[in-house]
Design a protein that fits this description.
This protein has about 290 residues and is α/β, with parallel strands linked by helices. The chain is about 55% helix and about 10% strand. The chain contains 14 helices and five strands. Strands 2-1-3-4-5 form a five-stranded parallel sheet, sandwiched between helices. Helix 4 packs across helix 5, helix 8 crosses helix 13 and helix 10 runs parallel beside helix 13. It is elongated and about 75 Å long.
Amino acid sequence: MEENLLSRLAKDCSKFSKGQRAIAKYILSNYDKAAFMTAGKLGEIVGVSESTVVRFATELGYDGYPVMRKALQEMIRNRLTSVQRIEVARSMLDEKDIVKSVISSDMQNLQATLDNLDQESFNAAVDEIINAKRVYIVGMRTSTALASFLGLYLNLLRDGVTTVRDTASSEIFEQLIRINEGDLFIGISYPRYSSHTIEAMQFAKKMGAKAIAITDSSASPVNGIADICLYAKSDMVSFIDSLVAPLSLINAIIMEVAKKNREDVLKTFERLENFWQEHDVYEKSNG
């Protein structure tokens, strides 16, 4: 239903009542804005009651307006340009209190991630990270920061970790040329989804490697390619991608890997502390 919502609205528009036609026409012309409006706001703009908007969603087969809105959001998220994101953000954020709006949104993303976490998938992903011969981590565009953070700590916890750098497409595949059966590919992908990440994951699977995806929802294009998908919400639609929930999920992965390799991790960090002290890596405390 989600994939055909816009086409259904266009096809069936003549069958709708006058108020429903007004709703359908507005969504078709302004889907990037309508997808993030409340039923009341949409009704106000179109000139119908909130109850009319709610009934319209129900008649389309959705369990209420919020479900239809979520379906529309997931369908269009990767279509939004940066300019469209800025315009949508204006209607979602309180411009008089940006910090409160942003942090509140991040808190909601964290809670949604926790509420919907699949513990079995999380445990399976951790086991794959521990048992893989080599681990390759790929995250492009804004996901580069997440990939670098995960790579930094996994390198301290185990051997054979490569963070693939965000360069030209051919160079990405050169960095993955030795990936094989027994290896693990971790792809991190958020809207607007990088085509290079998807292509790299497909290549890794073709070469026999297992694949883990860290992404936002089942609507992500990496879903269906990866063996294991871990979802962390990132619903901010401005030109800045919210990475708070994905980073928190990655923190949990790192901590779980460390817990299961406790003895090896303690030895590694003892050696690191000695090295850091010898080479003055960190400022010494005056206390």
